[in-house]
Predict the 3D structure of the following.
Amino acid sequence: MLKNIIGKVGKRYSIGKPRVVVGVPSGITEVEERAVEEAVMQAGAKEVYLIEEPMAAAIGASLDVGEPSGNIIVDIGGGTTEVAVVSLGGIVVSHSLRVAGDELDEDIVNYIKREMNLAIGETTAEQIKIQIGCAMPLMTETVMEVRGRDLADGLPRNIKISSIQVESAIKESINKIVEVVKLTLEKTPPELASDIMEKGIVLAGGGALIKNLDKLLSLETGMPVYVAEEPLDCVVRGTGKTLEDLERLKTVLINARRRK
């Protein structure tokens, strides 16, 4: 896949071997860093730089990561939730949790199986999450019709599921995300915590679009919470911005720091 992508980019822009910036989870080990570098180099890259995903998300959300004051980003992706406090071009405190969008889909699948005796696929669960998933009750309860396979007789059956039921289904996982945000704030140095209190928490990734998650986090932390513009694209956009301005943003690249 990497060879295919790098080959197409090289041909399209006639650049030969390109420089590549790769987003990786925070807390990656040096062995894992080198494995990623080698894989991308073997796929045809001239140079490989690594950036931690929450840092890329912060840049993509237009946070000034180079300033001495603190910013906090919560990137809720498919497989992991990454929470990081960023200051002076580096990550000061971070936590990674293996609870994110995929886990919420699984919660919905299990809830419908357990409560309604109906089997649905992950794609259907994701549609439910996107359309009526919420972290706190909505002002107006919404209902969605879902088709699945009855576990009793194996025949197709339609059911209706409400936003209140979906909230109940994903509640435990949402609470884990809230707790990891609170844990990160507890570990934040006091001088940066006051900056964050003023600026608030920024949400990125697909999970940021879950209705009322920002309100729940604000309620639990006592801080303002904002959803980044186009949160789904924050990591990709941040990685692209870093590549475009590589000299100025080199301090955010983990293997560039290691090479010094």
